[in-house]
């Protein structure tokens, strides 16, 4: 058995928690505990304690903050220990000493030092669901929490209260109560079966519709006509099919890099520069729209930050698109050099991002300029919005789900504005390129979704950075 965890629910009003570390992680752990029980007894020990933790202690008298280094005596009168420092040796020492006293330990981001995990929690009144991936993928646990939070109605609490009242009023023995309650809740299983049936009917209808359309078209377009059409499809379509497939695999494994992977790959094949950015943004507009809407639905979008990024981003994207069209048509060699240098810088930035350590949260200044720069360089280079904007906001200690959600939705407006600009200036001359990218990316999407979370984030980002740097250097060597 791969997962031997035994889930339990603790009555936190009877426990005393010790958190060692007063940074972002310590704040997150304390906030999580207080969210589940505002009266939980928590002691935080750290040489430096974040201001947010201090503000939290002002509204929670049961949250005790002590600014000092850890000492063995701190383990006294503690039932559970949560380690939130980035000092691995200190963490090991604390765990050894705590376990010697019979105290269980959780060490953030260090599964080997954990006696228990703090899972993602779904709260719906009396209903509480804890989700764990056995320490393998906290991101997946968070996504599942978001999913269940969205699909489970708030009215479930009323249903639970009603079932509780029926159970208390029932005069039968245990088996009779169980049978009657099973009967009352059997509709949940029926809904699942109905859903499967509806899906089966939909799939059968879809197949029939496809056959019907195919038969109807066969009476209009002969096999010879179809064969002739396929033979006239340009080679660039098949090249873009492979590029789109590969770029989507990269983006699925890493969570960024679609645009910059496409642009560097397409430069290798000598695709016209304006067509590179125009086709990438047209193809990416669909995925960013769906992604942004999903994040908005799950509450991962900060509206104020969205407006601050999107409006300057749109302006930058339009200007970047126009500049690329001008340079790409009249100064192709210079444009290739500028673009290859830009992607080289993005590759180096990805390496910095891969090795970036967790830092204290800082206020982001000049958000509008960040959005403008990201939109301008993204449109000019065919990619880079994510590596520029997302990495900058994350480097300031912003909450990851809010950053990713807001930047994804803002990206839709940026790609839309760039696509419209390229369409007006270039027309649809790059239609086969767009079609290849969309079909290739769509084909790779199921595989990419399976890769997500299975490749270590740092290794995946470094792999993308390596490819981008190699491609960029190769292009620069050809020019000079």
UniProtKB/TrEMBL annotation:
The keyword Transmembrane applies. Keywords: Cell membrane, Membrane, NAD, Oxidoreductase, Porphyrin biosynthesis, Transmembrane, Transmembrane helix. The chain crosses the membrane at residues 200-224, 236-260, 305-328, 334-355, 402-424, 430-448, 460-477. It catalyses: precorrin-2 + NAD(+) = sirohydrochlorin + NADH + 2 H(+). Residues 125-146 form the Siroheme synthase central domain. One of its GO terms (biological process) is siroheme biosynthetic process. GO terms for cellular component: plasma membrane. It is found in: Cell membrane; Membrane. Pathway: Porphyrin-containing compound metabolism; siroheme biosynthesis; sirohydrochlorin from precorrin-2: step 1/1. It comes from the Bacteria. GO terms for molecular function: ferrochelatase activity; precorrin-2 dehydrogenase activity. It is a multi-pass membrane protein. It holds the Pfam family TauE. Belongs to the 4-toluene sulfonate uptake permease (TSUP) (TC 2.A.102) family. This is Probable membrane transporter protein.
